[in-house]
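Retro notes (design track)

What went well: tokenization of the new backbones is finally stable.
What didn't: we kept losing track of which sequence belonged to which structure.
Fix going forward: every design gets posted as structure first, then sequence, in one message. First example under the new rule, 616 residues:
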């Protein structure tokens, strides 16, 4: 969840590291810090709050060193204080460390180190890890120069339980970085006379597009001109150098006030990118390059199981609806965090899918590993090429929507919906879905980007509506069938970025309890498109109106609601069932965005959240 940047090279490390931390700030933003080696000592600047605070603090420290490490923190152990911010320096002043993850046995290690005379200034597990490296470094005094820090870190990690992505510096080897991972992503960037390590390629691409994705239980040594990678068990690794296919411009705000609104407006192109190359030549079905499963094997699948978290789980729920409707195969969705502990009875001939924008969500990764451990094939729908989930899955489908920086997922979500719709088509066409129905389905998907553009054009009207609802403290989101997950997503978006309490229900469930909340103080957002249960949803609206609940209705163009029923109406174009969830998501995103802006909330960096959740 935290952001990591390490640099060793010819130029000053701190400006590059701070620039990188700004790009990673969406990962966690309780505090930030940077340490460089200069004049034979560590110079450390750290500050609670945003990277902007750190930048001011760093200016006071005059950081000139050319090797350094920096970190943005999302607190796990210890409160949000300057002392708890990373980097941490060992009490003998030899080692500096940044760390993502959680060291579970830190208490026992701390007791051991206190007994050896080490002292602590913070409440963090990271400072304990840092001092344990210092302890081993002291013991490894006989190891030849360039291996000593590497061996000390290796020894330390053998004693550690939990997860980590770390970068260590040592005062005795001023141009060396040691980095290792278990459960937290780390990427090495190979530059010209400089090498970088970061938790996210966004911090690397301004200097190089040549990267190596470190695997769990690997450890690397970087100097300005060299790098080497081995396993914790000392087996040398022959690195695979990948090329990142996006540039720094893709991660900028492009003139928008927030990443979130930029990404909302990028959705038509994002959908086109997610669809590119995935329609069969005859235009009646979908095709995928990386499933690593033959059509024959696919045809033998009798059940699907989808695991994910948050927004990605909502995309899975829509996919469930589409696969069951168009392919007539049972699908189960589960919270990835629950799946692992529920010990769900599983059928043979089940194919697993996980969905994850980041590909680093630890709960989703754990679900993937649990399913694989049970002998199932697991495919991943994922946006970040080279992410841990992408690498551990047996195959999968990349979303191809470019970097998503806003903490509230938008374009990644609608591209997951599109991929879910393509999957339902692919499976449906293997079974009962006719050639003609397949063609109509494909044409509808091809039209989705334009329909989304049409809804985006209503942003000014939705902004006006949002202004009128920004002062409420509670809201209900109600939808049915494939739009129930969209109601869940609408409520999640609103909670995340505006801090308004919001809940979602299938519209007809509302009368089984939630209706008790209804009054003039609790508005409801109804997703009420044309269709066979439209009249039922109108009845639910009547029940709300009878209790003075304000209503925002999202309806199909041309719909006339009974006079006075809805206080505000947002129109969406009529569309195919496979496209409806995508189109209906746009008003949800715009409403929550404009409400949050009206309330003065920090939309891209909502409190307590982080873009990818890499702790359990
Ligand atoms: C989305 O707005 C949320 N920030 C969050 O629910 C997110 O979708 C969830 O943490 C899963 O992330 P992932 O897709 O990267 O796995």
């Amino acid at each position: 969840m935290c952001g990591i940047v390490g640099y060793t090279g010819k130029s000053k490390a701190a400006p590059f590291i701070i620039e990188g931390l700004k790009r990673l700030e969406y990962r966690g933003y309780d505090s930030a810090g940077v340490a460089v080696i200069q004049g034979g000592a560590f110079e450390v600047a750290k500050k609670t709050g945003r990277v902007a605070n750190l930048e001011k603090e760093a200016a006071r420290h005059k950081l000139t060193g050319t090797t350094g490490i920096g970190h943005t923190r999302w607190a796990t152990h210890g409160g949000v204080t300057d002392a708890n911010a990373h980097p941490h320096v060992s009490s003998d002043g030899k080692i500096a460390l940044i760390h993502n993850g959680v060291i579970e046995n830190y208490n026992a290690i701390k007791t051991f180190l206190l007994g050896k005379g080490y002292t602590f200034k913070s409440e963090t597990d990271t400072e304990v890890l840092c001092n344990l490296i210092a302890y081993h470094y002291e013991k490894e005094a006989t190891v030849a120069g360039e291996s000593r820090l590497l061996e000390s870190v290796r020894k330390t990690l053998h004693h550690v339980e939990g997860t980590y992505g770390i970068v260590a510096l040592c005062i005795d080897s001023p141009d060396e970085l040691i980095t290792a991972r278990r459960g937290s992503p780390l990427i090495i960037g190979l530059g010209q006379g400089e090498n970088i390590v970061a938790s996210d390629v966004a911090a690397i691409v301004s200097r190089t597009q040549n990267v190596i994705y470190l695997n769990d239980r690997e450890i690397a040594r970087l100097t300005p001109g060299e790098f080497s990678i081995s396993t914790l068990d000392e087996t040398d690794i022959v690195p695979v150098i990948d090329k990142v296919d996006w540039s720094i411009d893709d991660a900028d705000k492009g003139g928008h006030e927030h990443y979130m609104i930029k990404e909302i407006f990028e959705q038509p192109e994002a959908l086109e990118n997610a669809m590119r190359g995935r329609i069969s030549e005859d235009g009646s079905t979908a095709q995928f390059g990386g499933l690593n499963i033959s059509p024959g094997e696919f045809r033998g699948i009798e059940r699907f199981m989808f695991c994910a978290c948050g927004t990605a789980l909502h995309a899975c729920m829509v996919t469930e609806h589409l696969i069951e409707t168009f392919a007539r195969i049972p699908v189960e969705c589960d919270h990835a965090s629950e799946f692992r502990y529920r010990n769900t009875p599983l059928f043979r001939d089940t194919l697993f899918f996980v969905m994850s924008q980041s590909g680093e969500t630890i709960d989703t990764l754990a679900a993937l590993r649990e399913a694989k451990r049970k002998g199932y094939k697991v495919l991943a729908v994922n946006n970040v090429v080279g992410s841990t989930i992408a690498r551990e899955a047996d195959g999968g489908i990349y979303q191809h929507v470019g970097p998503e920086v806003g903490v509230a997922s938008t374009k990644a979500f609608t591209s997951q919906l599109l991929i879910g719709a393509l999957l339902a088509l692919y499976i449906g066409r293997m079974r009962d879905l006719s050639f003609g129905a397949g063609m109509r389905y494909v044409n509808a998907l091809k039209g989705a980007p334009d329909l989304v553009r049409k809804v985006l054009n209503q942003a000014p009207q939705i902004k006006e509506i949002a202004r009128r609802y920004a002062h409420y403290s509670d809201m209900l989101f109600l939808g049915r069938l494939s739009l129930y997950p969209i109601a869940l997503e609408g409520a999640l978006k609103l909670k995340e970025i505006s801090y308004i309490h919001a809940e979602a229900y299938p519209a007809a469930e509302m009368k089984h309890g939630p209706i008790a909340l209804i009054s003039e103080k609790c508005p409801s957002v109804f997703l009420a498109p044309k269709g066979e249960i439209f009249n039922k949803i109108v009845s639910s609206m009547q029940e709300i109106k009878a209790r003075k609940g304000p209503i925002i209705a999202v309806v199909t163009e041309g719909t006339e609601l009974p006079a006075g029923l809805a206080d505000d109406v947002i129109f969406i174009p009529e569309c195919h069932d496979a496209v409806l969830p995508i189109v209906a998501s746009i008003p949800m995103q715009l409403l929550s965005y404009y409400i949050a802006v009206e309330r003065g909330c920090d939309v891209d960096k909502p409190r307590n959240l982080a873009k990818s959740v890499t702790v359990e």
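Added context from the reviewer: The CA atoms of residues 18 and 355 lie 31 Å apart.
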